[in-house]
């Protein structure tokens, strides 16, 4: 076994791949809050990598690691080639998307519709596994309409793990491929956590991660008594400081002596550097809009940013917007050495 294959695959907490949201700028910001959670890229299709601008799709800052590259595709050879290219860019692992229900993805016959064809997914995994020394992981749904029983899921998990998948993340809802938009597919089909727990019971040696509807640190702690990892999507974007204390509570690291102001000063530095390199400030600042979830002054902070970020904002716009938030809150230590119990956002603000 190569060194790379021994990279860790059990991460108690991760941040979900989200198109347009978990781009490199948001990941850089989140990494300032949690050093250990696994981060994912947005889904990148094999076509985009093989026929598009690879640097645009794949470059990231070394600070973002550990970072999983999520691929979208259904052709084993193309996926294997992309996995190998991803290894060259320094990703920590390669993840296959078997959960996206969008029409575009269905037209390409990948994403969630691949759940109907576990043998094909297995072929993709084993081909990728043979062409890269990185761990290959999978993100799926509970099932798709018509193939949605626990037995179907169990067969899927067995086949993809036998093909070499090192971790399976299961979004605990089925996907309904006709008639529901991707957003509806993230809320209409009911959550079936029990099915994910049952998969972990049936395959105790497999690394199983649960995803869907997790919003608090208590939720994470509770799921972790039944599965190996928990993936957070929307809540991470809408409230990034939810990840305050995640490292301490779930990765066993000690509290860092860091404040929110210091995190924003680091983002200001990043913003200046990237803007100098030609990036549009709004592409970075848009990810900071949700930073002060339910905090006094958040509305004014957001208004200042949204009004000015698109029209050639000056270098101090972020600092100007921050003045809406109280100094007391900004200068509070981010991580607190509280008893080892789980604390919620409410108790740390
Ligand atoms: C804006 C947005 C974009 C998403 N893009 C992807 C994607 O590229 N790949 C993927 O596997 N899932 C994608 N998802 C689904 C999430 O990864 C996750 O499975 C889903 O949001 C459920 O988790 P949550 O309830 O914690 O948000 C996306 C979700 C959102 C909200």
Automatic annotation (TrEMBL):
Its EC number is 1.3.1.91. Residues 15-311 form the DUS-like FMN-binding domain. Its cofactor is FMN. InterPro entries: Aldolase_TIM, DUS-like_FMN-bd, DUS_fam, DusA, tRNA_hU_synthase_CS. Pfam families: Dus (PF01207). It is an enzyme of class 1 (oxidoreductase). The active site is at 100 (proton donor). The keyword Nuclease does not apply. It catalyses: 5,6-dihydrouridine(20) in tRNA + NADP(+) = uridine(20) in tRNA + NADPH + H(+); 5,6-dihydrouridine(20) in tRNA + NAD(+) = uridine(20) in tRNA + NADH + H(+); 5,6-dihydrouridine(20a) in tRNA + NAD(+) = uridine(20a) in tRNA + NADH + H(+); 5,6-dihydrouridine(20a) in tRNA + NADP(+) = uridine(20a) in tRNA + NADPH + H(+). Catalyzes the synthesis of 5,6-dihydrouridine (D), a modified base found in the D-loop of most tRNAs, via the reduction of the C5-C6 double bond in target uridines. Specifically modifies U20 and U20a in tRNAs. HAMAP family: DusA_subfam. This is tRNA-dihydrouridine(20/20a) synthase. It comes from Leptospira langatensis. The lineage of its organism: Bacteria, Pseudomonadati, Spirochaetota, Spirochaetia, Leptospirales. The gene is dusA.
């Amino acid at each position: 076994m190569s060194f790379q294959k021994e990279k860790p695959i059990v991460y108690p907490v991760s941040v979900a791949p989200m198109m347009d949201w978990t781009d490199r700028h948001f990941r850089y910001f989140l990494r300032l809050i949690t050093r250990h959670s696994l981060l994912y890229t947005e889904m990148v299709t094999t076509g985009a990598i093989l026929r598009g601008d690879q640097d645009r799709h794949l470059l990231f800052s070394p600070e973002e690691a550990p970072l999983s590259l999520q691929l979208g595709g259904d052709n084993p050879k193309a996926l294997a080639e992309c996995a190998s290219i991803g290894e060259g860019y320094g990703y920590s692992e390669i993840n296959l998307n078997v959960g996206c229900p969008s029409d575009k993805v269905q037209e390409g016959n990948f994403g969630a519709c691949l759940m109907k064809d576990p043998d094909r997914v297995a072929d993709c995994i084993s081909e990728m596994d043979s062409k890269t020394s990185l761990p290959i992981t999978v993100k799926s749904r509970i099932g798709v309409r018509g193939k949605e029983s626990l037995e179907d899921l169990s067969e899927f998990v067995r086949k993809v793990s036998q093909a070499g998948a090192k971790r399976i993340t299961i979004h605990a809802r089925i996907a309904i491929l006709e008639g529901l938009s991707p957003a509806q597919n993230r809320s209409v089909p009911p959550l079936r956590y029990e099915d994910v727990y049952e998969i972990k019971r049936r395959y105790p040696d497999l690394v199983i991660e649960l995803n869907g509807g997790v919003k608090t640190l208590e939720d994470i702690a509770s799921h972790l008594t039944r599965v190996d990892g928990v993936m957070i999507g929307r809540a991470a974007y809408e409230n990034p400081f939810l990840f305050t204390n995640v490292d301490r509570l779930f990765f066993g690291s000690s509290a860092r002596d860091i404040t929110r102001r210091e995190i924003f000063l680091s983002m200001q530095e990043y913003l200046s550097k990237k803007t100098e390199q030609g990036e549009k400030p709004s592409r970075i600042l848009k990810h900071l809009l949700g930073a002060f979830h339910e905090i006094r002054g958040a509305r004014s902070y957001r208004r200042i940013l949204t009004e000015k970020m698109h029209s050639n904002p000056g270098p101090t716009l972020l600092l100007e917007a921050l003045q809406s938030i109280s100094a007391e809150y900004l200068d509070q230590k981010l991580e607190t050495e509280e008893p080892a119990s789980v604390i919620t956002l409410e108790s740390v603000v």
